[in-house]
Amino acid sequence: MGDNIFVTSPLLPPLEEFMPYMEKIWQNRILTNGGAFHQQLEEELANYLGVKHVCLFSNGTLALLTALQALRVTGEVITTPYSFVATSHTLLWNGLTPVFADIDPQTFNISPERIEELITPQTTAIMPVHCYGIPCDVERIQQIADVYGLKVIYDAAHAFGVRKDGVSILNHGDLSVLSFHATKVFNTFEGGAIICHDARTKQRIDYLKNFGFAGETRVVAPGINAKMNEMEAAFGLLQLKYIDGALAARSTIYQRYCEGLQGIPGISWFDAAGRFDWNHAYYPVLVDSDYPLTRDGLYDALKAEGIYSRRYFYPLISSFAMYRHLATASVDHLPVANAIAEQILCLPIYPDLTQADQLRVIDIIRRHAQKTKKSGKPVRHVA
């Protein structure tokens, strides 16, 4: 069977390079609460990403929760059902009502046309997701927000380093929220960040993530404890030294998949060529009825050979019990998202994925493509 191959894996720099950071933390005797590495990582990330202000968090979910608090969002928030559950969970935790809009079949992102038709007097914000790091239609979404006076908070968990027209995608909207979870392109074990555009907003966010403290004895807001500790910040600084190489490796792996899967009936993927600077965070493919196996069948076939792909995102957020009662969660309201969720499969992609292992993944997919379809008809190959 060989070694197991996973859908994603963190970039792990040499252990010996992490030791000086640990020794420095030990010498400083500062483990958290905005220590030296925390401050340094905020500065270096802002420079690297091309944004004005970075507010570090202990994880991306707490960052989303706090972003909604920082903008004082109320009522209804239009969002996508095609995401990780944390996107909508943060709305419920803030006492907000998620309103689901269908997605674009090409980009997997929220459809601006569907957003506009769902706006009511109770709508105060839009929370789109840059799914797989593919940028949303940020210009159209901002136009809608401006017309109706809505806030825009981007769940940019997948969008580290993504640029469009030479500008960071994180500069759009009122706030953008990153995840630095261990499975992400850039990680700090656990972690996250809010990207904001002015010092006043950053100050409010920094209050909120530290219990609302504004000094030793003054509390100005009902904040929470969401601070990133010094160990995670130090790991982030070390990761940042290797991130360009990691992104280049991901790009090579992405291109190899595109070449290797070319011409397989029933297998398609997103083509970002020349459209924006992508981070190749994922390699999502759609498995449709022209492929001999169902999506779940291919998932099981890969797993049987030690290859762990992921049906990401399946099930839809709208199908979970705490959301099913919403009018906008119905299958009829979300035809595209439901169709994509039944076909999606993310293949393994990470900087250390070897060419040999990747070719094994491709070979398995091709091998099953050569089998007779369930209908008994032979598979038609495309030259």
From TrEMBL:
<dbReference type="GO" id="GO:0008483">
    <property type="term" value="F:transaminase activity"/>
</dbReference>
<dbReference type="InterPro" id="IPR015421">
    <property type="entry name" value="PyrdxlP-dep_Trfase_major"/>
</dbReference>
<dbReference type="InterPro" id="IPR015424">
    <property type="entry name" value="PyrdxlP-dep_Trfase"/>
</dbReference>
<dbReference type="GO" id="GO:0000271">
    <property type="term" value="P:polysaccharide biosynthetic process"/>
</dbReference>
<protein>
    <submittedName>
        <fullName>dTDP-4-amino-4,6-dideoxygalactose transaminase</fullName>
    </submittedName>
</protein>
<keyword id="KW-0663">Pyridoxal phosphate</keyword>
<feature type="active site" description="Proton acceptor">
    <location>
        <position position="184"/>
    </location>
</feature>
<feature type="modified residue" description="N6-(pyridoxal phosphate)lysine">
    <location>
        <position position="184"/>
    </location>
</feature>
<dbReference type="GO" id="GO:0030170">
    <property type="term" value="F:pyridoxal phosphate binding"/>
</dbReference>
<dbReference type="Pfam" id="PF01041">
    <property type="entry name" value="DegT_DnrJ_EryC1"/>
</dbReference>
<dbReference type="InterPro" id="IPR000653">
    <property type="entry name" value="DegT/StrS_aminotransferase"/>
</dbReference>
<comment type="similarity">
    <text>Belongs to the DegT/DnrJ/EryC1 family.</text>
</comment>
